[in-house]
Amino acid sequence: MSSADIYREMILEYYRNPHNFGKLDKADITARDTNPLCGDEVEMQIAVGPDSTIQQIKFTGKGCAISVASASMLTELAKGKPLEWVKGLSKEDVLKMLGSPELGPSRIKCALLGMKVLKTGVYAYMGAHYEDEGANSAR
Amino acid sequence: MPRAEALDVLKLRGDFPILGRKVHGKRLVYLDNAATTQKPRQVIEALVDYYSRYNSNVHRSVHALGEEATEAYESSRERVARFVGASPRGLVFVRGTTEAANLVRFAWGDRAVRRGDTLVTTLMEHHSNIVPWQMLAKRKGARLRFVGLLPDGTLDLAQLEGALRESPRLVAVTHCSNVLGTINDVRTICSKARDAGATTFVDGAQAAPHMPVDVGAIGCDFYAFSGHKMLGPTGIGALVGRRDLLEEMDPFQGGGEMIREVFMDHATWNDVPHKFEAGTVNIAGSIGLGAAVDYLSRLGMERVRAHEVALMKGAMGALSGIEGLAPYGPRGAASRGGVLSFNLGDIHPHDLATILDEDGIAIRSGHHCAQPLMGWLGVAATSRASFYIYNAEDDIQALKASLERARKVFRL
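Above: the input entities. Below: the structure tokens describing the complete assembly.
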């Protein structure tokens, strides 16, 4: 897959003007993580609705186009979904969302950072521990 | 002295099998030499030769293979020591610069550093010249102080003077920055540090491979470098230390080879440098590093340095024509090593490296193990092209063309 395919107009648009970028006034879930390889960082905040849905979600952070776009698109996808939905979210879902099914082993970590943060936060809120599949399944 | 003849890069490339390969169908343009360099046939063959002809443990085997391996190992020590103007008995083989710093941290630091002491490092250091001292300071209740930089990316010598007034126990400084390319005047720094009573540790990882180094002239107490950044194999490097200091120091790791005699309740130590080389050493690695310094010595380090200055001039000129490209570090090619860090518009370095990779160009992107420096630069990451003996104008032109393409991909 060539960079012209990876860095499509939409990815660049999300990178330069990420949707749902910012902080919530009141959050039930806050999670943050970094990619030690490149120093990318993502923090996500979620306000949980009475029916255990993701009522509000925002993110902050810095990183490459892939990680910022991925985190931003993920917040849009997650909004309104039940917390349970996050558990079923997979690497393939994220890559499909980005339209980049063939990212290399080093760059896929950028794509999955947002999902890792989202899962870490939601799992902790639900009293579970998220075992990072990202590190192992990233190949 | 007559002007040194320029390196014959095209001929020399023939020595590096890897440079013949394609990456994504393109000629490999390898510009990640500050991370690790490629290996010439002469080094690869030295490894194969050892393993296929005289593989054996060193120092204690009296059979023919053992003697040949010991001879090769100690001969490498002599050649590597000579390469940096050191005495072989003052050269300890280690895994690399990181292990050298950690050896000093334990074997010297445990004894020399006390509660309330000050240790000094600088803002332009690689993590390997920060974290060991941080850990030492924490363990001892000492304080780690950073010397800052001037806007052009050179060391703030006034701040250094200030730090030296605190009579620090240690001054740890890089000979050449792996991000900015800044070459520090380590001779002056070590002289001032010594006057202030400090022990000096110089990180030579980006200097020893690229310019003539004479540890005697520098006047440091410790000088460290890594073999894999200078044509040698990974897992081998050297710590050069002042003999009297090495004699006083405790061992680093305990085990075989580093002892003289072992009793049930105590042991006595082997002579320097063997006192610091516990266990079976990296025999193949040291032999490979010996072959690497032979290769570099044949080229001549003055010529290597002149080649890189010329490359850097060319690169800075070529890249200055690219709109939105912001380079870091000193402006003059002669005052910096062969690394060029930069950012291009709002393209994150990782995205840039992905795009360049498609053109067969290998650069580094990220924080380069220098996060305090990234903080000072006010960026999360940079892109870095770093040069070596087999790079030439064609590589710079390829880099330039690919950077222009990246601007298009990102619609800059």
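Note for the figure: Chain B touches chain A through 20 residues (CB under 8 Å).
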